[in-house]
Amino acid sequence: MSRKYALGCCSMKIIREKLFFKKACCHHAASDSETQNEESEKRGKGKKRKKKNENKWVVVSNLPFESCKWKENPNRYYDCNKIKTTKYTFLSFIPKNIFEQFHRFANLYFVAIAALNFVPVVNAFQPAVSVIPICVIMAITAVKDVWEDFRRYQLDKEINNMVCLVYSRKESDYVEKCWKDVQVGDFVQLQCNEIIPADILLLYSSDQNGICHLETANLDGETNLKQRQVVKGFSNQNTPFDPELFQNTIVCEKPNNDLNKFNGFVEQPDHKRIGFGSESLLLRGCTIRNTEIAIGIVIYAGHETKAMLNNSGPRYKRSKIERRMNIDIFFCVGLLFIMCLIGALGHGIWNGNFSERPPYEVPDANGNYLSSALAGFYMFLTMIILLQILIPISLYVSIEFVKLGQVFLIHNDIELYDEDVDLPIQCRALNITEDLGQIQYIFSDKTGTLTENKMVFRRCTVDGNEFSHQENAKRLETHKELDSDDEDWARHQHFALPVIKIEKPDTLKQKNTKPLRRCQSARARFQGHSRKKSLGRCDSLQSQVAFSSTIEKDVTPDNRLLMKVRDAALQIESLASFPSAKDTCSTTSVTDFFLALAICNTVVVSTATEPRQRVTAPPLMKPSGISLERIHQLLQRLKLANLGQSFSLTQSSSDLGANVNAKNSKENPAATDSCNKDDISTHTCSNSTDGDYDGDDRADAMPSTEMGGASLDEVFGSVSQGHLQPEFCYEAESPDEAALVHAACAYSFTLMSRTPEQVTVRLPQGTLLTFDILCTLGFDSVRKRMSVVVRHPFTNEIIVYTKGADSVIMDLLEDPAKADINMGMKLRRIHAKTQKHLDWYARYGLRTLCIAKKVLSEDDFRKWANFRREAEAAIDNRDELLMDTAQHLETKLTLLGATGIEDRLQDGVPDTIAALREAGIQIWVLTGDKQETAVNIAYSCKLLDQKDTVFTINTENKETCESLLDLTLEEVRKNSNVERTKWKFFGISLSSSLPASVAPSPDIGLVVDGKTLNVIFQGKLEEKFLELTKYCRSVLCCRATPLQKSMVVKLVRRQLKVMTLSIGDGANDVSMIQAADVGIGISGQEGMQAVMASDFAISRFKHLKKLLLVHGHWCYSRLAKMVIYFFYKNVSYVSLLFWYQFFCGFSGTTMIDYWQMIFFNLFFTSMPPILFGILDKDVSAETLLSLPELYKSGQNSETYKLSTFSIAVLDAFYQSLICFFVPYLTYKDSDIDVFTFGTPINTISLFTILLHQALEMKTWTCFHWITMIGSVLLYFTFSTIYNAVCVVCNEPTSPYWLMEDQLSDPSFYLVCFITPVIALLPRYLMLAVRGTFRASPILKAQQLDKLPKEQRELEIQRWRSGKQATPSTPMASPSDEVDRTNSNLHVSQFLGQAAVTPHGNNDTQGLSTPEMNHLRDWILNGEGNSSTRRWAGEETTAANSLARPCPGRDLLEPTRIASPGPFASHLTSDNAEELTPGSHRRSVSAVTL
User: Fold this and answer.
1) Highest mean pLDDT among 513-527, 658-672, 927-941, 1019-1033
2) pLDDT digits 0-9 by tens, 1179-1192
3) What is the distance between the alpha carbons of residues 934 and 939, in angstroms, rounded to a whole number?
4) How far is residue 441's CA from residue 1052's CA, in Å, rounded to a whole number?
5) Hey, is 1442 helix, strand or coil?
6) Cβ–Cβ < 8 Å for 984, 926
7) CA-CA distance, 1232 to 587, in Å (whole number)?
8) The pLDDT of residue 354 is above 50
9) Buried/exposed code over 525-548 (b: 16+ C-beta within 10 A; e: otherwise)
10) 75: which DSSP letter?
11) Shortest CA distance to 278 belongs to which of 227, 209, 329, 332?
């Protein structure tokens, strides 16, 4: 079980006790002994489950068996609800922990060495002493493990002892029981704001419609409410649910970890089956919201619940340094073997020089001496024991401490803390922090990762007429350009004076509206709704709702579309005679379009007050002056006007009608400028107001028609200003749904209430229209659409409203060929125009959705409903049957229009991507969005540069794909070779014959789709694909499935042998995150699935910049230097013992006391490298962020590689020689004993090793001084005390009073001063020479850090300007562009029309200029001159072609400024630059099939 989930449950426990229960005890729980006996019996028989139910999960009520023994209960085979996430028990801890630690090779090695030392023939130390090091190391690790397990035990105990209400037959009431005592088959009563203890099938809800609302924040982090429906057959209960009357049998699927899949049926005593699905399952860990009481039966309990099955625990990953370190350890093993072999051979040679047996050789009991070979073998084992510390035993424990310290510093970095969502960075993996500094490839999702996942309504098209919403674009641009000072002021205004409420008029001109401020953005906290009652939060006046920030919910209507909505209402009002078919069709199209936006969703309408309650009935409002009966009569007359046509065919007005509307809007500017919004609320919950407009101006624009004593103008004014509008909160399951509902609300189609049976919408007239909901077909990733079947309240027609992806909806439309000629032509024109608008939306980067409808007859719906009920009741192939019924209904649709929703780019994304690319990191985007949308976002976030040549490969044929890859590779290689063979020497261009390196070309981009990826993987074209990507600076994979994402990551990681990082925010990114070396989840608005599967979790993509460039660089540099230092330290110290063997006859003795040797590595020299690995900063954070190229040192493993490791080992040998032979030459002719000779060597070695550490340190703090000085003081203190009290500790020699004698000898001080200087002199000279003659970028950056701030910034600017002045590729001149265009055209002629097609060199980004916006709308709607309209007709005829040149553009014409929009050909270079100062240059070469 995840720790976060446990903490969430424990925090909710306190709230629930305060709200509902007085005591946290279990009064009616079974006794402990009985429970334990039952559990043990159940576990013992767990393997003996009935074979007949192997594939099914059968649950019955426990009430009939309450008085019986547990073994008679049919549910006895299922787990109880007690959870246990601990690994150890009191008895199993020691053996199990030791067994786990023996999985580490180093621990096993040292235990074997310690055991070998107990053999008398080969022992080198006292046996008991040799066990101390490994015991200390394993004890430290065991303490850490037991502490972590104890924390898990405490969390388990708190969760298991939480209480809930379970029905008892003896008490005939619900009694309190602990969670751990809940069993499968128990009836549990849940109350509002209570956490669900197990997976429960919902059988009763206090809601009159059988609805129960859940908040799944504790499970997946999603803050929006989910609806759960009572099982059919139990929903229509007039009396409270009685568990004792429940005699049904529940049959469902066995426990699995799929949160969205659950099928089964309830079998009644008469063998009638009632099917149910995941919509009736309450998952453990979720919270009941907006429902007073819910009752259900437990289906899965304990570790069989879906929440527990999804908890696989943290994954163990081995970092790159750890893998490299294991190789070096084997090198040390080989070095140890060589040393021991030399010792064994030396021992044999030494003894062979004696003419007779030396006196120190003792024969055995029989008087026999050991043979030379056997003596050499024993000496080999003795040398292994003596030199065992050549393998750094303390390195592993030190690395764990260092990584914990690094994680602590990363977690507490204030710059990685997101104040909006109150979230710091989460480090979920503790063993791969250094991998953050070696990343070479980044694979990123787009939606929610590069973008905010805040869906903002931007544009729409209705019946082929496009509406630009320029005023809304201005509002969004104003919001985007708000500076930080205003943001701080806004935050102060928002939080400093929370009690003051500023009243504003109901109607406010848009031009007087203050700019939106970022503080008004209410980002949802993923750890749950901030409800005061449930979570006890008091930091805000109102709770936060998902997808309801100010920028999302406030939409400024488009003037022309608002006039069409108004005209539709006026036409209904003025139907004194039969109107023309054109007018009626246009009226119903606009009305149906916004009705579909308002009701084709699962949005929950709730009150804004605390606690929020679902709105099931529309609120009372002031009468609007027009009755429902009158509206009913008008709709009946409208229906009669369409006698010759089907009501389902909703057509648009002609182009002439559009021009008339545009003309009216131009002639009456007051009518268009009067459109305004209600006051922008600074609270989270939106005030559900409509897009109102002033009545006086409207009266001047168009005369009103009297009806029933009140004109429609008066009705509009009364609706917008007169009635009291209640405050609503729209709680949606996705941001797209929320954006569309808010857009409909802006046009006065306001969603007022929703129940499972009905949905109420307020029309612009103020009339409440209540639709009966007959069926709702939810959205799924296979159908890519959702539908709602409703009955119109006046016409009684059954209407299907559908919205979904354009790639799906456009194929489901009614065939125009089956209609009459005029109607067919009109349908084709609408489809072509809508498709053109959709393509333009996608190129601009908008998310597109198509809106359609269909009218069903009573017989057709009755037949379909019967099929649907049979599919819902099925237990086998239920999902397939439900899919078939949905697809059968969603056919022959009538297109109403389409919407363009902008997923806004996150702050800092372009700068972050530019910095990461400058750091040498290749960035790929793997997304499921449309290709045009992904490409546009790539340009916006600087993933693709304006000068890039982008190759787009779309094919489903293997041979074609292979040919395109070969031709593209040939072209790219040719361009790459030409560019990289140009050299300049003193300004003179020279050509070189050297081959070009396979480095990413700075002007090549690649775009592939999901179908092409399938061909690549299935056709064994991975090598060619990877070869092509090596030349590309960016790669975009569009329309990619989650499986394809993970396959791409695995392909790059395994084939290219590079370090990869995947970052995403949704459940579809989990496989990609787990496949990479480092996985990063973004805790956004798509839940917690990505975070749960990640190694690190951040809240913003921009945090990746500092996480990698700063913390990644630091972690790698610190740990790499520390690992090398440990190898150096151990080799240096062990070599002292090895050199001594040449002077002791290779006898395996030492000149240093055993205790000194043990404490040397464990205590005297252990703390400085650990502190160095945690706190050292070779370069400051500011410099690392300013110079991203410094990150390349980690990518190239410059700090820890074979050369640095070899130099460290050689330096260790040199220093050991100096530390040994300088004291040896000093005391050569003296009569000192062995330990007196070894004490200066040990002291000198300590000084040398610590001073070597000091040379490597770049940051000095008080902690560094304390550890360095403390290590020396600890050494002398221990040695003095030990030598003073130890008289006979090491027979036959004695260390008694050695240190005291040495401290009184002046030669000791002289040797201890001179020897470290001589030993460290080469190291110091190497560092000095390296920094003088050939300074690396890191050394230059270190020198910059020593400069004053102003001078440092100036030098950094010079550095960067110098890099930019000498780019790797020369800038292209205009003539070069012409040559390049012709070159690409040559390839196009070779490949044919379906191959390479060069596009324009420029594109306009954004809608920042009103003139450009107007020009786009003017051309998109066909309102230009005759040549423009003629071109539009030609475009329509070519709409079905697979690949076509950019419209209005001659392929041979080297145009400098072009745009993807159809208006590009009418712009000259100068005019385009005037209109769009921020336009981008693009040279795009698309390889398309």
Assistant:
1) 1019-1033
2) 999 999 999 999 99
3) 9
4) 8
5) coil
6) no
7) 112
8) yes
9) bbbbbbbeebbeeeeeebbbbbbb
10) G
11) 227
CA pair distance 592, 126, nearest whole angstrom: 92
Q: How are beta strands 1096-1098 and 426-427 bridged, if at all?
A: antiparallel
Q: Which of 118, 141, 144 is nearest to 131 (CA)?
A: 118
Distance (Å, whole) CA 587 – CA 1368: 60
Ramachandran class of 213: left when φ > 0, alpha when ψ lies in -120 to 50, beta otherwise: beta
- Residues facing 788 on adjacent strands: 776, 801
Question: What is the Cα–Cα distance from 181 to 188, expressed in whole angstroms?
Answer: 12
DSSP string, 859-892: HHHHHHHHHHHHHHH-SSSHHHHHHHHHHHHS-S
C-alpha of 1148 from chain center: 58
Q: Which residues are catalytic?
A: 445
How far is residue 852's CA from residue 787's CA, in Å, rounded to a whole number?
Answer: 9
Please give the model's pTM, rounded to 2 decimal places: 0.68
In the predicted model, is pLDDT for residue 1341 greater than 80? Answer: yes
Closest by alpha carbon to 800, among 820, 822, 827, 773?
773
SS3 content of the chain, % helix, strand, coil (to 5): 50, 15, 35
Write down how long the chain is: 1489
Of 15-24, 255-264, 713-722, 842-851, the range with the lowest mean pLDDT is: 15-24
Distance of CA 681 to the CA centre of its chain: 31
Q: In the predicted model, is pLDDT for residue 1391 greater than 60?
A: no
Comparing C-alpha atoms, which of 1244, 1217, 1402 is closest to residue 1310? 1244
Q: How far apart are CA 1246 and CA 1299, in angstroms?
A: 14
* Residue 1151 CA, distance from chain mean position: 58
Q: In the structure encoding, which two tokens stand for residue 1096, read together?
A: 């690190």
Phi-psi region of 458 (alpha: psi -120 to 50; beta: other; left: phi over 0): alpha
The pair phi, psi for residue 1213, each rounded to 5°, is: -65, -40
pLDDT in tens, 409-460: 999 999 999 887 788 998 888 888 999 999 999 999 887 788 877 778 889 9
Which uninterrupted H or E stretch holds 904? strand 894-905
pLDDT band per the 50, 70, 90 thresholds, residue 670: very low
Q: Tokens in use for 449?
A: 């990762």
Strand partners, 769: 761
Reading across the β-sheet that carries 281-282, which strands appear in turn? 173-178, 163-168, 187-191, 293-300, 199-205, 281-282
Q: Please calculate the CA angle 258-547-848 and round it to the nearest 5 degrees.
A: 85
Distances (CA, A) of 757 to 64, 211, 743, 749, 760: 36, 11, 24, 19, 10
Q: CA 1461 → CA 111, 125, 312, 840, 1413, distances in Å?
A: 73, 84, 49, 6, 12
986: number of CA atoms within 13 Å, CB side? 0
Mutual orientation of helices 127-160 and 93-101 as an angle, nearest 10°? 120
pLDDT of residue 301: 94
Peptide bond into 611 cis (omega under 30): yes
Q: How high is the mean pLDDT of the chain?
A: 74
Share of the chain above pLDDT 70, in %: 69
| Cβ–Cβ < 8 Å for 1031, 998 | yes
Tokens linked to 649: 């065919």
Query: Of 975-989, 1049-1063, 1400-1414, which range is least confident?
Result: 1400-1414
The single-letter code of the amino acid at 867 is F
What does the alpha-carbon distance between residue 162 and residue 197 come to, in Å, rounded to a whole number?
9
- Region class of 302: left (phi > 0), else alpha (psi between -120 and 50), else beta: left
Residue 1132 pLDDT more than 50? yes
Q: What is the pLDDT of residues 915-932, one digit of tens each?
A: 999 999 999 999 887 787
Angle at 995 between CA 994 and CA 996, to 5 degrees: 120
